[in-house]
Amino acid sequence: MHIDQATPAELENALxxxxxxxxxxxxxxxxxxxxxxKPSTAQLDLSNPLNQILGDSTHDDEGTDLRNYGLLxxxxxxxxxxxxxxxxxxxxxxxxxxxxxxxxxxxxxYSLWFAYHLGIQANGTAWQNEEQSSGSTTKIxxxxxxxxxxxxxxxxxxxxMVPVALTGHGPDMDQVEALVKADASIKGIWCVPRFSNPTGxxxxxxxxxxxxxxxxxxxxxFLVLWDNAYAVHSLSESAPVLASIDxxxxxxxxxDSVLQxxxxxxxxxxxxxIGYIASSEANIKGFTKHxxxxxxxxxxxxxxxxxxFLQDQAGIAAHMAKHATIIASKFAAVADSLEAHIANTxxxxxxxxxxxxxxxxxxxxxxAKAVVALAAEAGxxxxxxxxxxxNGNDPLDNNIRIxxxxxxxxxxxxxxxVFVNCVKLATVKQKLAE
Length: 434
Hints:
Blueprint: H1 8-28, E1 32-34, H2 41-45, H3 76-85, H4 90-96, E2 97-99, H5 104-117, H6 127-134, E3 139-143, H7 148-157, E4 160-164, H8 173-182, E5 186-191, H9 205-212, E6 223-227, H10 245-252, E7 258-263, E8 275-278, H11 281-291, H12 300-310, H13 313-341, E9 348-350, E10 359-363, H14 368-377, E11 380-382, E12 399-402, H15 409-433
Parallel strand pairs: 1-11, 3-4, 3-5, 5-6, 6-7
Antiparallel strand pairs: 2-8, 7-8, 9-10, 10-12
């Protein structure tokens, strides 16, 4: 039944059936959670050899005692390994990569805080100083739907968030460039360039090139905040490849305006991984100086065990192929359910990502909150409606993020049965109310 072609009688009959099914789900008293993109236990088990890999070893290959102070910006072998993920060459990685503790989010928080209060570079100009001289509030562009934690970081610092549209190949660059040219108080743009959270899109080469060039047209101290969280998280070998923003920015002379972030949180252990940054030499030097005011260094033994476990890019690729084997069936279960029950009904549209951790679903306008609430009644927790937009404000109230990686496959299938019923129920109710 297509929602826009159904007769009132057909809608009333459908409503009765959907409500009956909804109450049956409630009576089953299930408790299923699709709120966050967490690795499953089976994925985490892939990295258990990390626990034994160092044995009694306490030194790196250069003879440095990793138990002691020193190497604030990370051990050389880790810089080489993780810099390569972000496209930084071996000759550059020691001066242009910072390797930290277990979270890229903490490095993003530090970066934003440093940029706002101190300036990223050691003698840079802080965004708040520019606010005082110009009288304009600092702004950051936020491709939406996007990652809620990016938005929370901005909100904490009082940075104004400006939503920009996504095209399926990244941000609408005509809109981005027009905004940046017109307003020097726009100091950055958040990007999740490969398998975006939540839409799953991969920025195409033109978009990457235009983002790398923003430093030439933006106001002072502009930063492309390049959160490449899913750089190696493809579901198949045929997944689209992301162009290197490092290579393009280096050619354009705009490395100072690009901060790349990554982590092993969804490669090895989510709570005991490695976060890392790549940027210009001046930015990394400034970041390290600021970071050194709060820390004597991150866990270098953990950095070393990751190097020995993952080894090189081929080792990472082989390891991630094992991850894909575990989660591909869960993404397929989401796609199969939506195709079987929502396709050709006019009740929603969704992404079919080739990697990453999420599926983005768009209801008809005005229904996301209703669907999430109905699902919660039936025991299925979803990311709160609106969370994928700045300040929790989805102007169309239609985007829902589905995170299928953590539950077992049978639980994903059960959760999707509840979800599609809730989508239909909310849509039929809305249509009857018109």
